[in-house]
Amino acid sequence: MTGFVLGVDLGTGGPRVALAGTDGVLVGHAKEPVDLRLLPGGGAEQDPDHWWRAIVTASRRLRARHPQQYAQVTAICMSSQWGGLVPVDAAGRHVHPALTWMDARGRRWSEEVTGGGVRVPGGYNARALRHWLSRTGGVPTRTGKDPVGQAAWLRRERPEADAAAVFLLDVPEYLTMRLTGRAVAGWDTAVLRWCTDNRDPSDVRWDAALARRCGLDVGRLPELVRPGTVVGTALPAVALELGLPGGVRVVAGTGDTTAAAVGAGATADFDAHLYVGTSAWLSCHVPYKRTDIVHNIASLPSVVPDRYWVATVQDVAGKAVDWLLDSVVYAQDGMLDAAPRPADALERLNALAAAAPPGCNGVVFTPWLNGERTPVDDPHVRGGWFNVSLSTTRADLARSVFEGIALNARWMLEAVERFTRRGRPEAVERFTRRGRPEAVERFTRRGRPETFSSLRFIGGGASSALWCQTMADVLGMPVRQVADPVVANARGAALIAAIGVGALDWADVPSRVEVAATFVPDPAVRAVHDRQYAAFRDIYRRTHGLYARHNAAGAIAER
């Protein structure tokens, strides 16, 4: 096949649209920002129409730059932030602003849904927990930050909008419906409602009993489809808006985490990648379903056929850098007659941070500015600087933010490496019973490494050489900087589009993604980072109870 494809990735900060050949070679990309509204009580909303206008704007800009190739686009796939809620009517029009993955206003009702009866540590009902884990591999968070808690909040606090909603969609599904008019969900994006049976990654389906547990009506959920497959063609009006030719095929939308793995070229079993953008995650594909509820890690159905991916999330990563720039360095609060944040603010911050030594003269930054999810699911913990003295410089503070995010990634890495060392014996029995010897062999293969040999690094954080070297030094392993790391998610969506229309095969993906540079750990700074990491872990151990008391719902409401 010849032609071109579009990959769209809608992050919390806005969409990036990538144009690529059906051979996977990137032609160009464009981005456009969107706003995020943070509301009292843990609300985090966005306007879906703003998303769409930004996608249209970026697409038209890309078309103006590459008119000949854009005119030959044959397929499109949308990747996006997920774990949110977009209530829509029968035509796909939203009836309430989108609740993003950061929205925690449903916490009260998430606790009701998951609690009661005989409870295990953490507050979950023991019987319900067993049911969830046996079918889905995961469980609704008690923080309210998933579609279960968000749907309950909508039902209780916005009953008019809930009554007007025909479908309750996650963000990738909303974008697919906007393109095609169909309310469909790939198995990979449906799972965060925690009411799909994921025991066989090649045959995922809604579980009515689990849906009732979650307070969800299956009739209001999208139709399930196989990930990475064509679900329709772009509506004529939509094609006109985007400047696309007629008949462009639409491949089922996917989450940014799964698209990122594809865009990083990390589709083989146990080939790990690290993403640092607004949030961060560390993941790889595995051939088995498993759950570590203590560290908030589960393997969930992937866009890659017959595979699971290891689900993790560091709640705040690059967003901490934005916070530093917008709320500390270039804050528009009248304190100083400073100019607005300049276009090269990140470059200036990198240069400032590089002026401080590794270890930041003992200063430790904890990036828990919005709580944490992996390896602890803790909505109350908060971030800050530790060990600041009169001799601390602004360079120390700046570098410590970079290193603090890396220290948290090391904490997450340790949990993921423990998770991937072995699978659950019942999975071997299940594959044996189903007559799938190849799956049994993959599951039980010998020689599986105790640790990852290297990590592919993508996202905005990977565009900084300082951050790449810091990650290598703090994590203690080679970090492979993927070429064009900020485009990884959109490139992954484009590759999925090409695979969906038969132009590429899954086996082709690693060879289509170039590694720009490899950063090797510096043994001279290992002891410094080990000391900083020990302090980082100790800070959480000693303070998380204090944060829980200080940031309890009543105390927050009083402030």
Automatic annotation (TrEMBL):
Q: One matching Pfam family, short form?
A: FGGY_N
**Which keywords belong to this entry?**
Carbohydrate metabolism, Kinase, Transferase, Xylose metabolism
Record's signal peptide: none
Does the keyword field hold Kinase?
Answer: yes
**InterPro entries per UniProt:** ATPase_NBD (IPR043129), Carb_kinase_FGGY (IPR000577), FGGY_C (IPR018485), FGGY_Carb_Kinase (IPR050406), FGGY_N (IPR018484)
Family, similarity comment:
Belongs to the FGGY kinase family.
Protein name (Swiss-Prot/TrEMBL)? FGGY-family carbohydrate kinase
